[in-house]
């Protein structure tokens, strides 16, 4: 951002040097046109930089989750951030509740690992839209889960994320996971975005391959 401001300032200085401060009305109109074009360019550059920073933030979050490095994941969230990833739990709000959720998940994954249950995650390319100091993102997540002697389970869902810029740094203000379907022999091993019945106790339709569960 600082480099962008410096470049624009230099261009403006050069522009006034070329046209002068007391030029003709035509020169003033040209200066105004160039200034407006430069403002558009500045916003475009800001958006490109924001998208790159948000992509890194999402990658950091997924790295924490996939490798169960969850002690500091709450630092990726804004002060009043919301985490909504379990069907059977109400959303967590704020650092204290979000930390508790991730610590619970960390212990759960460690226990699953001892029992030989693991999950492989594949994430799709995010669609990111930026609006000043806020942004939104959506991307697909595909899981393949080992389920003890019952074989493999397959789950597909998507993340919806919202972001806010706090003290010059992008943070997650909302992270929501919606499970579209889960197929396998029995229920998937517990984990982030997984679980049993929904908050209202309902389940999705059942297929010949096993239960297909989705957020209601």
Largest sheet: 7 strands, mixed
Give the total of domains.
1
Structural class: alpha+beta
Proportion of beta-strand residues: 25-35%
Uncertain parts: 185-216
User: How many E-type strands?
Assistant: 9
User: In angstroms, what is the radius of gyration?
Assistant: 24 Å
| Helix fraction bin | 25-40%
Give the name of the CATH architecture. Answer: Roll
State the helix count.
3
Give the C-level CATH assignment.
Answer: Alpha Beta
General form: elongated
Q: Helix and strand succession?
A: HHEEHEEEEEEE
* Overall residue-averaged pLDDT value: 74
| First-residue to last-residue Cα separation | 42 Å
Could you walk me through the main structural features you see in this protein, from its secondary elements to its overall organization?
This protein is elongated. It has a single domain (2-211), classed as Roll (Nuclear Transport Factor 2, Chain: A). A hairpin with a 2-residue loop joins strand 4 and strand 5 (134-146). It starts with a helix and ends in a 5-residue tail after the last strand. With 216 residues, it is α+β, with helices and mostly antiparallel strands. The protein is 38% helix and 31% strand.
Relevant terms:
216 residues, alpha+beta, Nuclear Transport Factor 2, Chain: A, two-stranded antiparallel ribbon, 3 helices, 38% helix, disordered C terminus
